[in-house]
Amino acid sequence: MKTVSTFLSLEAPGPRVRVWLDGAPLHLPRGANLAAALLGAGVNTFRGTACSGAPRAPYCMMGACFDCMIEVEGETRQACLLEVAEGMRLTRPGAPGDA
After folding, report:
1. CA distances (Å), 79 to each of 30, 39, 69, in order?
2. Where do the domains of the chain lie, and which CATH numbers do they carry?
3. CB-CB contact of 95 with 45 (8 Å)
4. Contact residues for 80 (Cβ-Cβ < 8 A; gap 6+)
5. Residue 60 DSSP class
């Protein structure tokens, strides 16, 4: 998985917690916006579209576009509306992998 990000954090990083993305561990800032934290960690693809599998990633960051859908412990949710918590189990539905 890619770990270099084009996104920079404007805040000093707080304590990090371990979450699991597709079975691989990631250390993200506790309480951070999940979509922003994943982008900051270099995750560029959150899901694949149902028809073609085309990669999708956060677009609006306010819950209107649904491009940041991700499975959180078996339930499909919008990552931009969630906060990072210790031990989250995340799965990218239909994601073709990081580009």
Report:
1. 14, 11, 6
2. 16-90 (3.10.20.30)
3. yes
4. 33, 34, 35, 36, 58, 60, 61, 62, 63, 68
5. S
- The span from the CA of 64 to the CA of 20, in Å, is 25
The answer to whether residue 3 scores a pLDDT higher than 60 is no
One-letter identity of residue 20: W
**How far does CA 59 lie from the centroid of its chain?**
12
The b/e string for 30-46 (b: 16+ C-beta within 10 A; e otherwise) is bebbbbbbbbbbebbbb
pTM of the complete model: 0.84
How large a percentage of the chain has pLDDT more than 70? 82
Residue with tokens 């028809």: 51
Whether 12 has a pLDDT exceeding 70, the answer reads: no
